[in-house]
Amino acid sequence: MDDGNRPGDGPGTARADSLVELREALRGFVRERDWEQFQTPKNLCMAMMVEAAELAEHFQWLTNEESARLDAATREAVREELADVLLYLVRLADTLDVDLAEAARAKMRRNAEKYPAERVRGSALKYTAYR
After folding, report:
1. With helix as H, strand as E and coil as C, how does the chain read?
2. 31-34: long-range pairs with CB below 8 Å, 24+
3. How many domains does the chain have?
4. Is the pLDDT of residue 14 over 90?
5. Residue 7 falls within a domain, yes or no?
6. Computed from CA positions of residues 51, 77, 27, 21, in that sequence, does the dihedral angle turn out positive or negative?
7. Of the candidates 32, 41, 55, 121, which lies 20 to 30 Å from 68 by C-alpha distance?
8. CB-count burial class (<10 Å; 0-12, 13-18, 19+) for 44
9. Angle (CA) 81 7 80, round 5°
10. Contact status, residue 19 vs residue 13, Cβ threshold 8 Å
11. Whole-prediction pTM value?
């Protein structure tokens, strides 16, 4: 994953090229600040939800077309909120010992079974609508 950061940017000073490296950088960032005591699954989940709500605020009241053509300032603000959501998600998964990449791959396999392309192409219906 290329998040645009270069050495010296972001958590720690390492470039985050993978979820594993990002997780490790976050561990160091949290440890340096003695924040483990606050970063319980409940607190991390709640913080992630707050950040997701802040992300949603940028799209609230926009039309579909407007949401696809954000101005530069809004796009940068959205980028920041996306990063916040990702950081809390990675940290939450770490505290629960969840391999996010594997969990996502497993979920994609289940979704492929629930939503076979030949049956659902072009449809936004939930899988229960055609089973």
Report:
1. CCCCCCCCCCCCCCCCCCHHHHHHHHHHHHHHCCCCCCCCHHHHHHHHHHHHHHHHHCCCCCCHHHHHCCCHHHHHHHHHHHHHHHHHHHHHHHHCCCCHHHHHHHHHHHHHHHCCHHHHCCCCCCHHHCC
2. none
3. 1
4. no
5. no
6. positive
7. 121
8. buried
9. 5
10. no
11. 0.82
Whether 54 contacts 81, CB under 8 Å: yes
- Chain segment 110-128, per-residue pLDDT in tens: 999 999 999 999 999 888 8
Domain range holding 119? 99-131
Distance from C-alpha of 8 to C-alpha of 121, rounded to nearest angstrom = 44
Higher-confidence residue of 128 and 102: namely 102
Cα-based angle 26, 32, 38 (whole degrees, multiple of 5): 75
